[in-house]
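Step 1: inspect the first sequence and its tokens.
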Amino acid sequence: MQRNVWISQNGQSLQGWYVKAKPARQAPLLLYFGGNAEEVTGFLSYKDELPGIGMVTFNYRGYGGSDGQPGEQALFDDALRIYDHFGNLPEVDTRQIIVMGRSLGTGVAVYLAAQRPVHRLILTSPYDSIQSLAQAQYPYVPINWLLKHPFDSLVRAPRIKTPVLAFIGGNDRIIPASHAETLLQAWGGEMHKVLIPQADHNTLGNSQNYWQQIRDFLKVDNNGSL
């Protein structure tokens, strides 16, 4: 069953959605962090792809029904709040919290994996840092001085031991494959990479066998056991 949920702090609220795992028991939980301005409720349409696993996703600050202004530290703080809140629910198996991020959300997911115990990490269109992406597109602009939100996943990668599955689009012009490769080469734990040559930034998640490869990575059976 999908239900609307809210997390509030300091007078500001975040709007999210929670799909509780069936059957009702301690079950794995997947936390999803979407791309920039992504309508994250669409992700919940895939809930049947991972049977027996609960799902949680929230609108970033300033989007949908969520209050506030988005920013690197704000998104990081919210990710910790979401993890801590749902990790304390009696129906959640805290040993099997999965974190998934897409595009901008991969930076949030990597940060969370560096701060909290995460069983598995799934990244779609990951990057080394927003700063690096910007510098590659605008090489004559002093990005180091201008960029306020670097989302530097590369600096965190070596100390993260969580196994990661990364999907890379060979035709991704927004996050070129080289930036994902740089991040993965620095990863401190087990790393699985799926390069889909013809996929671009917006079609990568619709690629053939996308969800099957996620199920294989998570070792999900028909009952949702990991």
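Step 2: inspect the second sequence and its tokens, then contrast the two.
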Amino acid sequence: MCLAVFSWQPGADSVLQLVANRDEFRARPTSAMHWWPDNTILAGKDEVAGGSWLGANKLGHFALLTNIRPGFIGYQATRSRGDLVRNFLSYQLNSTQLSSPQLTSTQSIEQYHQSVITEIEAYGGFNLLLGDGERLFWFSSTNPQGRWLEAGIYGLSNDSLDTPWPKTELAKQQMQAFLDSGKTTLQQSEILTSTTVFADHQLPKTDVPIEWERKVSAQTITDEQYGTRCRTYLDWRNARFNITEQQIDSQANISAEANYLIEV
């Protein structure tokens, strides 16, 4: 996942509204969002390494991952970053009472965070956003301690949270415009749909060639070899997730769409 924007309003009735684009090589084997075989995780799946970039589970837990480029180009990781999403969302079915088995989380956000930072050097650069329906926590390779997020609009791309890259700043403006519009569903917005490539003087410097920096500066990347492959809309409120995932082709067209509801 390479670009996300979200509005977070914590409280008695917490609301998370999020849009995220996943950018990847188009030839990399990937499964669209689906319920995994044990029916515990709803997520897309990287069929090469076995992990995911965004997902939720029936406990109302949520995770989103982006990579970090600056300082990590060429980094030799020993574990896949996609494991970070999969492992947080995995849970156990407590069947001690077979008539009414209960879902039991394996780890809280706090426990999971601590377990990851003890081996954080095994992964390439990453941002990880974790939610449990009432709270939202972010940490990264460059900020291992992380922080609990307060109310606001946040942008996340391939650097630290709210790093002011042009496409991230545009995404936050788009989210604010949506909230001000009175529209009821995220899919009615134009959030993250821009294919505009930004001017060279606006581009970040992330140790990749300028040709690549230009290409990936767009919110929706339309290159034939590497580009935006899916867009996910997530709305969490009143103990339910409404999630829509759209498959995006190299012309920025929606080639497929699926909707999911999780009631906690």
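Step 3: confirm your contrast with the notes below.
The first helix runs from residue 82 to 89. The longest strand covers residues 226-237.
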